[in-house]
Amino acid sequence: MAADFKTAQPVEYYRRFLKEDVRPDGRELGEIRHTTLNIGSITTAEGSALVKLGNTTVICGIKAELCNPTAEEPKKGFVVPNVDLPPLCSPRFRPGPPSEQAQVVSQLMADIIENSGVVALEDLCIVEGKLCWVLYCDMMCLDYDGNVVDTCVISLLAALKNVLLPEVTVNEETGSPVTDVEKKLPLNIRKCPVATTFGVFDDHYLFTDPTNEEECLATGVLTVVTTEDNKICCMHKPGGTALSESRLQDCINRALTRAEEVRKLIDETINSVER
Amino acid sequence: MAGLEIISDQGYRIDGRRSSELRKVCARMGVFTQADGSAYIEQGNTKALATVYGPHEVRKGRGKIQHDRAVVNCQFSMATFSTGERKSRPKGDRRSQEMSMHLRQTFEAVIVTELFPRSQIDIYVQILQADGGNYCACVNAATLAVIDAGIPMKDYVCACTAGFIQDSPLLDISYVEESAGAPFLTVAMMPKSEQIVLLEMNSRLHADNMEKVLDLATQGCKDVFAVLDRHVRDHVSESHALMTAS
Amino acid sequence: MLKSKTFVKKTRKGGVLKVVREHYLRDDIWCGSAACGGCPQDRPVLEAEPEIDSTLCGFPHYLIPDTNVVLHQMDVLADSAIRNVIILQTVQQEVRHRSGTTYQRLRDQSNNADKHFYVFTNEHHRETYTEREQGESSNDYNDRVIRVATRWYNKHLQENRKDGDTPKVKVVLLTNDRENREKAQKEGLLAYTVHQYVKALKGNPELVDRLAQVDMGESTDSDIKNEATGRVLFPEHLPLSQLQTGIKSGRYLQGSFMASRENYLEANVLVHGDDSRSIFIQGHAHLNRAVNEDVVAIEMLPEDQWKCPSSMVLQDKDGDEETSEPDLGSPKGRSNAIPSGRVVGVIKRNWRPYCGVLQPSGIKEATRHLFMPAERKIPKIRIETRQAESLQGQRIVVSIDGWPRNSRYPKGHFVRKLGEVGDKDTENEVLLLEHDVPHQPFSQAVLNCLPSTPWGITKEDLACREDLRDIPICSVDPPGCTDIDDALHYVEKPNGNIEVGVHIADVTHFIRPNTALDQEAANRGNTVYLCDKRIDMVPELLSSNICSLRGKEERFAFSCIWEMTKDADIVSTRFCKSVICSKAALTYAEAQMMIDDKNRNDPVTVGLRGLNALAKILKKRRIDAGALTLASIEVRFHVDSETHDPIDLETKELRETNSMVEEFMLLANISVAKKILSDFPSCAMLRRHPQPPPSNYDILIKAGKSKGVDIETDTSKALAVSLDQATIPGHPYFNTLLRIISTRCMMQALYFCSGTLPESDYFHYGLATPIYTHFTSPIRRYSDIIVHRLLAVCINADKSYPDLLDKYKSQALCNNLNFRHKMAQYAGRASVELHTQLFFKNKVTEEEGFVLFVRKNAVQVLIPKFGFEGTIFLKSQDGRGEDSPFVFNEEESSQTAGEVKLRMFDRVVVQITVETSHIQHQKLRIRLVKPQVPGFTVPPVDTSNSAEPPVKKVKT
């Protein structure tokens, strides 16, 4: 019976649940799905992390390459994020060029990296104007069940913390880079941004960590990204229902506590992985 | 001067295997929720993921509809971070397209497509980490995913490579062995009926050696089958236990 | 299927490329010991009760040598006294990485069942795998790995003893690394240096001599200064990493070090990757301990320090440790200075065991001795031996171990004794060893591949071959030839054309691919002809009987048959496997006589005449195309039938029939080359002869100019024409001398696999043909065997096999064949030299000669009658010859003493004797008789039998 009702009138079905301050999957409104983390599983990558937020699964692999810095910013390296939402992860996505959503999330990742300053681009410079690192951070969704943004940010941060780069010096004589095979250095992670996404339903109900289903029904979505010094480094609200200031403040507070939990999880996982 | 010694006088390969040994195989089925069927496989350091959607109605281009059977659509892609050197194009390059095509041909041959006329089955495979034998890992993962999706097949398809390096046939060759530049054969077969579904070789191998290599690859496919079959049975009994428990 | 294998991933980083490899650990790797009851192994390699009598280890034990022990003490390990050795995979791999030759020797040991060498794959064994610790150097890590394996063996053998009766077998670690040894001893392991171990062996005192003296070689800089002498004679060698970056940046150049034969203080380095570039090195410090054929890194000297080859012939005479160098500098002629450099490091040593003699020592009891190699390009070697007395007057073999900076000479150790100096067999052995000619008797495995005798042709054989037994085929060869591999025929066809056939012994019918016989032949590469000995590529049964196309016997042949017009234009070519029956096996002289004898008109004679006529047309056509006719003098010794000593010698005479056979062989080779290339574009075995770089001709042009003759060298055609025109009235030998000099300007002809080079490089310069191969002598050349096999596949007469069509393997084979070919030539020349010496022993001979080159302190003279070249020293070797009446003029290349001026091509009369005062190097001594220079020349021998030597008639 319930299934029929859900199929026929999904919005009404959902509204009934929210009225009782509970969601169809049994979560409370502010509850976030169970988060699991697997770091360093892709050995071909310089750093990698697999994150599961409920069913939503994202893998992030970071490859480092040497390249030349631009003339405008000779002291800076590059971090190039990309988010892939392949048809593999959900029937929503079709084979072909990257979907609009994938491009939006990719851009959001780039903004978060830049605004939070998670990695100082100067740290990636090896020889000014000559040689620097470029970090390609490729995030791929393997199973899409909503809230891919939060999952991506966690996977990105965890993978960055997992990165080990060989020490590279430049041979003065030949001008060619020399890699020290023995010495591998971790990246200096300056800030730890964590995103928390909220869904708005009927301009009234606010719930965290929307599933795929909830995303489809929600009238608005808001993402708050905070760093460990309790600063907001990015907010993303692509249209939809307007939010009052107090509501927003609620969101921010929730985001701050969530960020704390996530950072703890990442650190614990990293410490448990032996290098 | 001294290049890599692919196989030692004592008969051990670089990674310590003997010439007719497979790498360690780990597999899991039903790993994802969105897909109708999914599987993950590790063959040594080669890690592949496969998901299956369908059978569902034919999307995009109704011209593709087959009135007597289902259309199989395959897409192969490799994660940018899956190889030593970053792949700038994870899919759509010639090699990936070729792989996709091979996969489609392979699975069209084994899925009982006649049961689903006018519909479509999607098989997506993703290489997360590549260390030789990518195609094989994909086929093996896809087989498990198709089984997981409950789509009827005539038989399993199991794939395995065998190479001919330093005058001896080697089973399930890894990336280093592949890069030694020696010929290698990729075989996908239905292990029970011993029918070869796909056979590919891109370099020159003297006909005298072909038989040895093919025999080894065939044996490899059967070994893979034994492992996959055990996984499937374990998985089914586990799910069954869960269902009866709940 | 994999059983229970846990695995550990190894990540190796090279550049920014992350390489990930799996590493499986196994529990099915057995210990290889017959004393072990725990491992389910079939045939254990190590003996249950190893016996070796030692004062140090008086109990049954196995040895585990570390990497450096294997690398440096292979001569000890290879001794039959050393058995039951465990070679760890770690050690084996490291050895493989560091020295290909030592690795090969190590493999030979493990393949020799009598030696009981067991390779233990420790890195994949679950209990001996050792993870590298953070910050641990790779050396420390390897040492630790070796200790772990040693400990495991001790424990394993103790726990798994078969039964109570067998003695407990222990494992002894051999390492010369003090730290490693101390650590091992602390861990309760038995560890000794090789020296301790070998010295304690009973009953093998000679083994001590074979110990390599490397401890000092391994020592660091500070150690060197601590040594007694405290002197450092040579600049330091830069570490490999520094050399590599230097080479990458272009600061240093990498090349092969080629020591000068004439002057021990000079060498050239052939820069890799740029064949024509050669850098000159002069003086002790600049040569910096490089030995002939080493791969070295050199630094160019600034142009104002460039040197000029001293044009001096200099041999290392003084045995003392002084480093005083004779003055090599050229007083004038900065303009002659050529690009020069100095050795900054050695990338790869190419040392091998060297033959030679011990230099007599003043002190009887001395253990330190100097060894003089037979090869003049190799420096003397300091060795330690207690059996010096018994080694005097003996040919011995010595290996170099190292060359410390404070030592004038490299240090080495005694390997084995060959025999008495001057004894012909010993000297033959020396020259075979020195030229790396495999000359052991054929093994049983090889002999097993031979067809059973009596051998006959069966019906099945005939069914698949063309029957050419009725055709008048004959062979023409030098007298005494028993390995006849070619025969010819000539038949006029009804249509007026001519059928010409070349029939080559069908060796590949008997030598099947990948048999022991085939592998042995491929390794030998060719038959080596010494003056009194032939070292066969294939066993005699084949070479002189079953394959040899003997007269009046039915034989298998591979035939190349042309239809030609009377003008020698080829109408068609075909190839077939056939059965022939040669009507006559002729010598060149016999064939010539038959042609000239107007009364003979039998089919063979008619055929010979026809062939001769065609050959002349072919030859003319070839010469018109620019083929070169070069000269070298070949001599033949008449040998005493009992003593086998040479009693007379004659220069080989060339007859028309020689050239007749040669023309058809060339034609067959070219036809076959075209055929196999068209069918196998990427794996045909061909022979090329590159055009020499223009600078090679400088010496020829200069020589010509000195007599007012212009030599054009732009193309082979131009060269051929100008050589033809170069004659001087009254100097009949001039032209031949010029041709001899031109021969020295040429490059080596090489075998190659067609897929490895662009087509433009296939060219054969000397023969002026775009493509060439060797097809006609399969009995004595392995290249021809490959070509036969390829051709047989082309005509569907035989099956191919994998290696035949693998261009890399083919090229590797070509490289071996090229090497063997070169060595066979050198060995042949050395043999002539040896026999020449024997010939002149106890004789004083006067003979006519011609000046070939003028050097600063010597002139080199060619003596046509004996076909050899000798050096007349005009000044003492250190170049300070104030007492010499001769003055050297570099521009003119002349030496003047009063009235007498010696220049290139001048005729002289010389006296030849064998100098026996120097036991180490018996050599011919050549002294000037005419023109007379008072106080320098020797008077003519006053005997009636050596009157004025007859002026030779010279053929050009």
UniProtKB/TrEMBL annotation, chain A:
<dbReference type="GO" id="GO:0034476">
    <property type="term" value="P:U5 snRNA 3'-end processing"/>
</dbReference>
<dbReference type="GO" id="GO:0071028">
    <property type="term" value="P:nuclear mRNA surveillance"/>
</dbReference>
<keyword id="KW-0963">Cytoplasm</keyword>
<comment type="similarity">
    <text>Belongs to the RNase PH family.</text>
</comment>
<protein>
    <recommendedName>
        <fullName>Ribosomal RNA-processing protein 43</fullName>
    </recommendedName>
</protein>
<dbReference type="InterPro" id="IPR020568">
    <property type="entry name" value="Ribosomal_Su5_D2-typ_SF"/>
</dbReference>
<keyword id="KW-0539">Nucleus</keyword>
<dbReference type="InterPro" id="IPR001247">
    <property type="entry name" value="ExoRNase_PH_dom1"/>
</dbReference>
<dbReference type="Pfam" id="PF03725">
    <property type="entry name" value="RNase_PH_C"/>
</dbReference>
<dbReference type="GO" id="GO:0071035">
    <property type="term" value="P:nuclear polyadenylation-dependent rRNA catabolic process"/>
</dbReference>
<keyword id="KW-0694">RNA-binding</keyword>
<dbReference type="GO" id="GO:0000467">
    <property type="term" value="P:exonucleolytic trimming to generate mature 3'-end of 5.8S rRNA from tricistronic rRNA transcript (SSU-rRNA, 5.8S rRNA, LSU-rRNA)"/>
</dbReference>
<dbReference type="GO" id="GO:0034475">
    <property type="term" value="P:U4 snRNA 3'-end processing"/>
</dbReference>
<keyword id="KW-0698">rRNA processing</keyword>
<feature type="domain" description="Exoribonuclease phosphorolytic">
    <location>
        <begin position="31"/>
        <end position="166"/>
    </location>
</feature>
From TrEMBL, chain B:
<dbReference type="InterPro" id="IPR050080">
    <property type="entry name" value="RNase_PH"/>
</dbReference>
<feature type="domain" description="Exoribonuclease phosphorolytic">
    <location>
        <begin position="155"/>
        <end position="219"/>
    </location>
</feature>
<dbReference type="GO" id="GO:0003723">
    <property type="term" value="F:RNA binding"/>
</dbReference>
<dbReference type="GO" id="GO:0006364">
    <property type="term" value="P:rRNA processing"/>
</dbReference>
<dbReference type="GO" id="GO:0071051">
    <property type="term" value="P:poly(A)-dependent snoRNA 3'-end processing"/>
</dbReference>
<dbReference type="InterPro" id="IPR027408">
    <property type="entry name" value="PNPase/RNase_PH_dom_sf"/>
</dbReference>
<comment type="subunit">
    <text>Component of the RNA exosome core complex (Exo-9), composed of EXOSC1, EXOSC2, EXOSC3, EXOSC4, EXOSC5, EXOSC6, EXOSC7, EXOSC8 and EXOSC9; within the complex interacts with EXOSC2, EXOSC7 and EXOSC9. The catalytically inactive RNA exosome core complex (Exo-9) associates with the catalytic subunit EXOSC10/RRP6. Exo-9 may associate with DIS3 to form the nucleolar exosome complex, or DIS3L to form the cytoplasmic exosome complex.</text>
</comment>
<keyword id="KW-0698">rRNA processing</keyword>
<protein>
    <recommendedName>
        <fullName>Exosome complex component RRP41</fullName>
    </recommendedName>
</protein>
<dbReference type="Pfam" id="PF01138">
    <property type="entry name" value="RNase_PH"/>
</dbReference>
<dbReference type="GO" id="GO:0016075">
    <property type="term" value="P:rRNA catabolic process"/>
</dbReference>
<dbReference type="Pfam" id="PF03725">
    <property type="entry name" value="RNase_PH_C"/>
</dbReference>
<dbReference type="GO" id="GO:0005730">
    <property type="term" value="C:nucleolus"/>
</dbReference>
<feature type="domain" description="Exoribonuclease phosphorolytic">
    <location>
        <begin position="21"/>
        <end position="152"/>
    </location>
</feature>
<dbReference type="InterPro" id="IPR015847">
    <property type="entry name" value="ExoRNase_PH_dom2"/>
</dbReference>
TrEMBL record, chain C:
<keyword id="KW-0378">Hydrolase</keyword>
<dbReference type="GO" id="GO:0005654">
    <property type="term" value="C:nucleoplasm"/>
</dbReference>
<dbReference type="InterPro" id="IPR029060">
    <property type="entry name" value="PIN-like_dom_sf"/>
</dbReference>
<dbReference type="GO" id="GO:0071031">
    <property type="term" value="P:nuclear mRNA surveillance of mRNA 3'-end processing"/>
</dbReference>
<dbReference type="Pfam" id="PF13638">
    <property type="entry name" value="PIN_4"/>
</dbReference>
<keyword id="KW-0963">Cytoplasm</keyword>
<dbReference type="Pfam" id="PF17216">
    <property type="entry name" value="Rrp44_CSD1"/>
</dbReference>
<keyword id="KW-0271">Exosome</keyword>
<keyword id="KW-0007">Acetylation</keyword>
<dbReference type="InterPro" id="IPR002716">
    <property type="entry name" value="PIN_dom"/>
</dbReference>
<dbReference type="Pfam" id="PF00773">
    <property type="entry name" value="RNB"/>
</dbReference>
<dbReference type="GO" id="GO:0004519">
    <property type="term" value="F:endonuclease activity"/>
</dbReference>
<keyword id="KW-0540">Nuclease</keyword>
<dbReference type="Pfam" id="PF17849">
    <property type="entry name" value="OB_Dis3"/>
</dbReference>
<dbReference type="InterPro" id="IPR033771">
    <property type="entry name" value="Rrp44_CSD1"/>
</dbReference>
